[in-house]
Amino acid sequence: MSTPSQNGLPPASSEVRTDRFDWSRSVSAGLGGHRNSFGLLRLILATAVIFSHAFPLGGWGEDPLLHYSKNQQNIGGVAVLGFFAISGYLIAKSGMSADGLQFLWRRVLRIFPAFYVVLIVGAFVVAPVAWVMAGHTIGSFFGFGSNGPFAYLLHNADLQMRQYGVYDVFATTTPYGASAGPVLNGSLWTLTYEFGAYLIIFVLVVTGILKRAPFMILVLTAFYFVVQIAEVIAPGMGGHIAPTLFDDYRVSLPLIFLFGSCLAVYSRRIPLDARLAGLAAVVAIVTLSQGGLTILGYPAIAYFTIWLAAVLPARLHWIGARNDYSYGIYVYGFLVQQLTASFGWYRWGYVPWTLVVLVITVGCAWLSWHGVEKRALALKDRGPGRGWRYWMDRNAAKKELRHRDRRPPTPSPIAPPLPAGGESRTD
Fold it and tell me: Mean per-residue pLDDT for 106-121?
């Protein structure tokens, strides 16, 4: 594999082709360093999820795109697909430069601290406020029942959302509650699939496959692609291959994640071409409107999203580059929408209410980033973040030191006795 030249571009001899596509610039060259708009795209996608959720949470029915896409996806769902494509690219790139311990440690730091805080805020800040506003006493809230706040934390601690609500909070005070029941935060369900996709890359990293046999990422993607086709033809077919695949999200979301990962692993060989991006956009729109999104639309969405991150104007690259508020916007948006809906603010209308929700959510995301996420990520190079080799060498050094301490001291040589008279003789 060729190495980048000093100006950050791959050597011309390895990238230039004479066929119909412009191979002079690769995906790797276009996304080198921080010269990209991933931060901006993530903010846009997180905001799109809020606007999508506003329809059902405000009592205006389903997101209109769900109808136009023949029940394939709504706006929020398309945004989640974009998130997974970007994540697949970035996580695979991270896995290519880290060992298994470093990789897993950094992924845990990125997901879990903010997740636990938003669970606590929902269970012990938002829910008690809504509980009291519904006419209950605060003393009756803090119980240890199966649907109480402590159970909410316990049941959801591993990212798998098993309990969406606390008691009947929001069940009768919000438009969404009338149809869905008590739901505090309906956005968190994707995180278990996100982390599950991380674990796929983790296995490839810890076994050395990602570095020594990168083609296996193509094989793995092809496997999920075939399972997805089987799911389209005969729903539930994936479960006959592996029990976990009975959940179709365990197929579809890892699939678009892996499409992003393929773009990362082969980023030096894949052209960053506007014609390919235009074709990808057409395929994504057609499959979204006519069907086949999960088969042909997913790779198209992945390529178009990565291409867009590379070609947006350089003056936008600073957005989200240092301070990434997208995760906070995503995990707090639904919670803020439910709370403000219980205040009756949705009656202001779709646009005013959603804009106010967005402002409040951005404030929560700012606090989450600077108070939790950024502090957690500061630990990424500490402890397990130093990697297997550091700890193995350190452990070996300690063993050697202990072995040396146990070794009996070597006796110093004894000088021969002096002859009688006390003086040495030279004859």
Answer: 97
